[in-house]
């Protein structure tokens, strides 16, 4: 059994920051359970373009207001507490955070904790062996 608090993750290598977001990673590939679990905050007034070419991601919004844009279709979806989206088709997407937007994210295959978006918004497919 693994038990972790957000407080104990803060400031460790599981607390990953980028220009438009901060992701605290509760469960990573090294735990060996087949997925990773992240508590992510996208900062108010930012826009983040992403494309998970190597991962499937489910996102559940628990705080804040924003907009999800499917860059392939132009569809726009309001993002607010209680809304979930699943990127099951590796969609190019943009998240516009009107306020700080806090989400719980699940990735498959699991992230290692070292991933950051590249110039195309992609997380590389890393494994523990790549460390």
Automatic annotation (TrEMBL):
It catalyses: (2S)-4-acetamido-2-aminobutanoate = L-ectoine + H2O. Keywords: Lyase. Gene3D superfamilies: Jelly Rolls. It holds the Pfam family Ectoine_synth. InterPro entries: Ectoine_synth (IPR010462), RmlC-like_jellyroll (IPR014710), RmlC_Cupin_sf (IPR011051). Signal peptide: none annotated. Catalyzes the circularization of gamma-N-acetyl-alpha,gamma-diaminobutyric acid (ADABA) to ectoine (1,4,5,6-tetrahydro-2-methyl-4-pyrimidine carboxylic acid), which is an excellent osmoprotectant. This is L-ectoine synthase.
């Amino acid at each position: 059994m693994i038990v972790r608090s957000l407080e104990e993750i803060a400031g460790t290598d599981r607390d990953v920051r980028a220009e438009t977001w901060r992701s605290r990673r509760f469960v990573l590939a090294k735990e060996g359970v087949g997925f990773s679990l992240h508590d992510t905050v996208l900062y108010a007034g930012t826009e983040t373009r992403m494309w998970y070419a190597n991962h499937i991601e489910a996102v559940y919004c628990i705080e804040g207001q924003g907009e999800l844009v499917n860059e392939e279709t132009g569809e726009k979806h309001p993002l607010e507490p209680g809304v979930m989206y699943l990127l099951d088709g590796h969609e190019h997407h943009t998240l516009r955070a009107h306020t700080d937007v806090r989400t719980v994210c699940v990735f498959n295959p699991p992230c290692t904790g070292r991933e950051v978006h590249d110039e195309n918004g992609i997380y590389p497919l890393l494994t523990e062996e790549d460390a």
